[in-house]
Amino acid sequence: MDIPAAGGGFDFMSWYMEIPVVSRLYFTGAFLTTAGCALDIISPFSLYYNFDLIFSHGQIWRLFTTYLFFGMFSIDFLFHMYFLVRYCRLLEEGDFRGRTANFVLMLLFGIVSMTFVAPLFSVHFLGSSLTFMMTYVWGRRNEHARMSFLGVFTFRAPYLPWVMLGFSVLLGNPVTIDVIGILVGHMYYFLEYVYPVLADIRGWQVKRIMEPPRLLHLLCGTYQGYQPVHLHQD
């Protein structure tokens, strides 16, 4: 999106303020965390995910900071910020427009799932996994959108996370973090979009699983339009 500015330049603040609130908060947290590390205000060693330090030594903040650190300022960092802002924003402005509580629930589902999976694979920073999850969900929800990779070949949106995964392999990067994001994204997609259809067709009692609680609607300011979902048939 081109943002008009005085003198024809790029108006960063206009672009920044146009980002939906949840995506903006996540982007801001990730940027400030990296800036803090670059200025030696924060040490990356105090941010990474460690099951023992979190649950045995009470360093609870690591549950959140592991999703905020994407490495030091570099081309790789800019690459991750681009995908974070783009697909987080596309989801919040698209499928989750007017459904902020549902969007937050999706992020919380990803965070909780990845937090329990991470110790199995000795993964310490999970921000990329969460970004891959959002990319996967967006791709599945926009299956007819066509995309191009470096202008070399085109493909449909559902293949985007797999193209990104292949690119990571070519660069020699470990794929564990990316695969975790894809798997958790598939879990969420099934529970949010596939399961309700199956439940309705087969007459299952539980109709929806991924339904935000009333408290989350209140916190996100979406309670006014909230309609309680009956999980069981009458």
Descriptive tags:
single chain; 10 helices; 2 strands; 3% strand; disordered C terminus
Task: Give a structural overview.
This is Derlin. Pfam families: DER1. One of its GO terms (biological process) is proteolysis involved in protein catabolic process. The protein has 234 residues and is mainly α. It contains ten helices and two strands. It has helices spanning 12-18, 21-38, 51-55, 62-65, 75-93, 100-121, 127-141, 160-170, 176-202, 214-220; strands at residues 146-149, 153-156. It has a domain at 74-207.
Care to give the gist of this entry?
It is built from ten helices and two strands; from the N terminus they run αααααααββααα. The protein is mainly alpha-helical.
Strand content: under 5%
Average the pLDDT over all residues and give the rounded result: 87
The SSE string, one letter per element, is: HHHHHHHEEHHH
Shape: globular
Sheet with the most strands, sense and barrel status:
2 strands, antiparallel
Poorly predicted sequence stretches spanning 5 or more consecutive residues: 229-234
What is the first-to-last residue Cα distance?
A: 48 Å
Q: How many DSSP helices?
A: 10
Report helical residue fraction: 55-70%
Structural class: mainly alpha
Widest sheet: strand ordering: 1-2
Number of strands: 2
Gyration radius over CA: 19 Å
Family: Belongs to the derlin family.
Membrane topology: Multi-pass membrane protein
Subcellular location: Endoplasmic reticulum membrane
Organism: Minutocellus polymorphus
